[in-house]
Amino acid sequence: MNIRFEKKKLITLSVASILPLIIWTTGCSFFGEKKVDISKLAKVTMIRNFSGSGYSRVAIDMDKEARYEIHRINNPKRIFIDVFDSYLTSDLNKKSVNVSDGVIKTVRASYYKPTTVRIVMDVENFDNYTSFVLKEPYRVVIDLFGQIMAKPDDNAPPITADNQPVTPPPSEPKTLSLSRQLGLGVHTVAIDAGHGGKDPGAIGVNGLREKDVVLDIALRLKKYLTEQYGMKVLMTRADDVFIPLEERTAMANANNADLFISIHANASRNLNASGIETYYLNLTSDPAAMETAARENSASMKNISDLQKILSQLLVSTKIKESTSLASSIQKALPKSLAVKYSDVKDLGVKKAPFYVLIGARMPSILVETSFITNPSEGIKLAKPEYREALAKGILEGISKYIGDFPQQKKAETVKESSSR
């Protein structure tokens, strides 16, 4: 099996057992002299990596939940994870793969003990790491950060999951880049159209699919950002393909995106539910917000509860303040933009919830629930190009407002710091 790693490319590393699995017709296998029921072990099926400047994310896929431990050693520099009561798929070969992305040198997998899989990441320019678990399917995600983030090349187009550069705008921007007008470092906006491929998202009026609606809105937003403001835009997906949630944020991190905007259409068992709301990543006790997160995560409410425990350890490094401000700007702009033609738009406000797609983002990141696809009235509107156009313009105005307010926010913070000294 050919295996290759490329910088800034989503790759798949298949790992294999170094111990033969002798499977009885009873479903048991021998590891040494100990008989083990293989059906009770977790199977490590895949290891995925996404790399960028000073950043590398590793996802370890399994067919069921397993206990694991992550260790760090400094001589030699290494991160390794032991997955207990597990085995490597028998049809794959043991590999030590050269990554060389500036953070990870190599990734290799083998057995530490007969039923303990050890995955080793030899690292080089390494500072720290974070880890979390995603479920359905079960996978462990590890983010590794280099000591110095390289300055992004302003002339280099963003790279997508299939290693294709984002097509530049067909003509010169109508105005100077908004970020340059304001003297800010906002070069790249990552736009995430929710769901896609085998995941249709919510199904609404007349079979309308969330994945189709949000992709159309995302592409319209991209057009405005590139043509009117001269910004780079990274699309996590530009067509009807399935992208795992953890890979979407990884794309934004690897491309040094300055903002991450995830676009969705809301749904509810209550067909009368309507309105627009914008979320940022945080813990919540609001049942409705947790239900929304569970649906967008394609997870159960129990998994959302487990996720909140994990988040309590990760939120220290999350840009909550900036994300809240971005969410507020977009939420204010969206209803206002729609109100020009639609008078019955309900403003549901800014909310917080644990969304998988926002975990690990190194930039201000939000998730927009544009309207309820399950509401008869809003579902019909979402099917219309002019309504989607108004939604894209509203998000655009929110981004512009956020960037426009940013210098004043920074100035106020500086004054406050100076006065406290």
Q: How would you portray this structure in words?
A:
It is a single chain. The protein has helices at 178-181, 210-229, 245-254, 287-297, 301-314, 320-338, 376-382, 385-419; strands at 11-13, 28-31, 34-37, 42-52, 55-62, 68-74, 77-84, 86-88, 96-98, 104-113, 116-123, 128-134, 139-145, 188-193, 232-235, 259-266, 276-281, 347-353, 365-372. It has 421 residues and is α/β, with parallel strands linked by helices. The strands form four sheets. Strands 1, 4, 5, 8, 12 and 13 form a six-stranded mixed β-sheet that branches. Strands 15-14-16-19-17-18 form a six-stranded mixed β-sheet, sandwiched between helices.
Main sheet summary: 6 strands, mixed
Q: Calculate Rg over CA atoms.
A: 23 Å
Element string (H = helix, E = strand): EEEEEEEEEEEEEHEHEHEEHHHEEHH
Q: Which regions contain 5 or more consecutive residues with pLDDT less than 50? A: 1-27, 148-177, 408-421
Q: Write down the overall mean pLDDT.
A: 81
DSSP summary: helix tally: 8
- Measured between the Cα atoms of the first and last residue, the distance is 62 Å
Helix and strand composition category: alpha/beta
Please count the beta strands (DSSP E, at least 2 residues each): 19
* Anisotropy-based shape: globular
DSSP helix fraction: 25-40%
